[in-house]
Amino acid sequence: MALVLGLGLLICTVAAAFVFEARFTSRAKEDMQRLVSSVALSAQSTGRDAAAAKQLSDSTGGLRVTFVDEDGVVTGDSAADPATMENHADREEIVTARVAKYGISVRRSETTGSNMLYVATRLSDGSYLRVSGQYPSALAGFVSFLPATLAAAVVAYLIALVLADRFARSISGPIEELCSGLKSVRGGTVRLDPARYPYDELQEMAADINELSEDVDRSIKTLSEERARIDYVLDNMTEGLILLDGQEQVLTINRAACGFLGCDKSVTGKNIIYATRQMALIEAVDGAVHSAAAGRVELPLSSGLLIDAAVSPVVRAEGDGEMAEAAIVVLSDVTIRRNAARMKQEFFSNASHELKTPITSIRGFAELLCAAPDLEPEKRQEYARRILREAGTMQNLISDIIMISRLESGDITFEREVLDLADVVRDCCANAKPAAEENGTTLTCAAERAVISASRKEMQELAGNLIQNAVRYNGAGGYIDVNLTADDEKIVLSVHNTNSYIEPQYQQRVFERFYRIDKGRSKAMGGTGLGLAIVKHVAGQYGAKVDLTSTKEDGTTFTVTFPREKSAAAH
After folding, report:
1. pLDDT over 50 at 524, yes or no
2. Across the beta sheet with 321-333, what order do the strands follow?
3. What pLDDT is stored for residue 204 in this prediction?
4. How far apart are CA 527 and CA 359, in angstroms?
5. Lesser CB count within 10 Å: N end or C end of the chain?
6. What CA–CA distances, in Å, run from 127 to 1, 105, 199, 411, 556?
7. Where in the chain is the domain with CATH 1.10.287.130?
8. CATH entry, 2-136, from 3.40.50.2000, 3.30.720.210, 3.40.50.1390, 3.30.450.20
9. What is the pTM (predicted TM-score) of this model?
10. d(CA 288, CA 277)
């Protein structure tokens, strides 16, 4: 604004100088014409020589007076020798005076070397009278205006700076506020008051920003809700999910993946190495991102879990090929599946081994019977009993194998009913009593009424295996106490025998399939090695807990605690 104002002052000054000069020239010409008219009257009575010119010049206050004859020859001049002066017939003022009353011109005088105003008139004798005086140029007029112009410019600059600052602030202030409001639109919370802005355009901009902010607010809310729903779904997946970008930075990671890798969601936005140090997984991610190659690795964790990690590239077409721009990692817990496969393999291996013994024994005794037709009746009878006993052992083993296989695979489901567990326990004790008497073992049974919703077959397996094991591993003179108690919170079945002791290192393993502490003794007594495994599995089906306590002094006690069902208790 100061520069524009200065340029305006300069243009105005120059224009004023020219206007002043034009008016000054016009006034000067008019004054000079009147003066020439007066001098012409005086010249009528004088000569036309230099003395007359000098006399007339003195009467005009020093103006230059020149006499020129009809041929343009200078006959007298108040400022120069006429003999040295050129012919003036072609001078503009002389030429004009021939046809008009006055001839006027402004030019630089070669005689005096200054800018002059010339006015000529024709006298009665045909000669010419010319009066001239110094005349200031346009530059001189401008120079005369220069001090005032500079003073006005300084004052104008100061005023312009103050006004420009205020004017700029009146515009830039609201605009800066609008800019700040526009930046905060990203948060969707800005609300501007259009009425506070002094300009209609800014008011419209503020209203538009408010509408934009509302749109952004709605969009952010919608996106947040969608993200929350997606996070909810992802966090409730049993599989771990990790989404990575082309720089292997974590874009999304769900709760399951954090649990598997031992990290938290703060790794979002960071490289995969901040989430895991499993080199196999990192290398698979490198292959997916840089080579668009899918991969699958197994990650054994320190917690004992075995994780299957499937790494898939997210590819896009790039010319004639494909380029990976992201990767997806899906983590699955395969511990149970692998353990199940291992247990299944062990189960079949153990089952084959367990079946091999009675089959070999049966075949051996059968070959003996076939090879010795004249065998003594007592021996033949003994071999037949051995074959029958081994066949019974094999039958029991096969039945137990089928039972536990069906229970664990879920292929068989037993219908539940409301029954009194005391009846089941008493029946099992009655079935085991002959074997106990044969072994010289005293078996006692005390069972309170305990109503439960359960499968009778499963309860018979549970109670029967516990009682038969107690009879089988107790000796002559031993005692077996079977107790069933019930209250409002639980039902407790305990089987105690006095003549057996299980060392602490074996107390958890006895529930494994085919595990025997004394294999020779167990087989001799007809044990299959599956009874306690069946007990534990059936108890787990009903949320029951199986406890084992064993001391050398008191013997061994198996306790099964069922949580009491409210409906059954009321019944």
Report:
1. no
2. 250-253, 240-245, 321-333, 306-318, 295-300
3. 83
4. 16
5. C
6. 61, 18, 76, 151, 167
7. 342-397
8. 3.30.450.20
9. 0.41
10. 17
